[in-house]
Model the fold of this input.
Amino acid sequence: MENTADSVQKKPLYIGHKIITVLQYVVLIVCCLVVLIPIAVVFLGSFKDSKELANTTVFTLPQSFGLDNYKMAFFTEDILRSLGNTAFIIVISCVGSIITGTMTAFVVQRFNSYFTRFVKGAFLLATLLPNISMQVTVFQIVYKTGLYNTIWAPIILYVGTDIVSIYIFIQFLSQISVSLDESAIMDGASYPRIYFSIILPNLKPAIATVLIIKFVSIYNDFYTPQLYMVDDNLMVVSTVLYKLLNATTVQWEVVFAGIIICIVPTLLIFLFLQKYIYSGLVSGSVKE
Done:
């Protein structure tokens, strides 16, 4: 009798567990469809001509997988130049963020003083302020320093406002034993030597994480390039796609091809380096 009662009690629990599992898979499938369907529509549309695109459904396969739209988007619509500008901005901004971020985190995390505590509080206050509330002041500073409508304007802003990267480096630095610094000091090493010989090599996972996050955020940013670089020769990936959409006659097949071209670099980098994103964000969150 007791076994029968136990089996009756376990059966509803088993059914409930099955229902929860099914619901989880349903939610995951829906989320995947929400992400993949627009990409599939854009991908199929990028191989159609204007007539075929207007007379077929979005899921109809193209009659021929020609590359004319990709050639036009890549060479005629300044996407090649925009990719070059974007790459230049990303490289300089990432290098600057790594240097300034690791140095700032090293000073703030290793030296406990009124100044470092003040800097931490200032960083925390800056993260609480909405960016839009400071745009008028930032724009005036950029304009008066002569950086407006130059490629250096977004670079300075990307490097100088990278508070999230500093906190990631501080989080990782808390796992690096201070005894390594003390041993190096006893051997006669200076703080710059400690920074380059001990801190930077041990921050490789954090640096990889920051590089990927920085790359994605700069690559997808539209507001900063659109506001501070109005010259057509300074267009980046996001602004050149916006230009295609605001043309007098929108060639949607060319726009779709341009979108696919712009997606490929981010997709490849994410696929090859995704393990660093997840491990980097989780590592350092718990002290052992």
